[in-house]
Amino acid sequence: MKGKNVLILVLVGLLAVLLLQNSGLARVRLYFWSLYMPLFLLVLGVFLLGLAVGFLLAKAEKGRKKKEAAPPVPEPPPSSPSADL
Length: 85
Description:
- The chain has helices at residues 3-21, 39-69, and strands at residues 25-30, 33-38.
- It is of the alpha+beta class.
- A two-stranded antiparallel sheet has the order 1-2.
- A hairpin with a 2-residue loop joins strand 1 (25-30) and strand 2.
- Helix 1 runs antiparallel to helix 2.
- The N and C termini lie far apart (74 Å).
């Protein structure tokens, strides 16, 4: 196995242990809403939200670098004054 695959398996295993050990109820409050859910679902939801934000930021950074690396668009040559008449 490659090192990257081993690292991914270890991280998934640690995440599974973390989720299983946090099965108690947690209260989530947002303004006037209140919700009870297992803590592992809350942890998993925050993890997935962070994963999505990281993916979107990486994609935006890649697009920004690609745009900076593009050659500039050449300007058209100036027209002569006699052509405007």
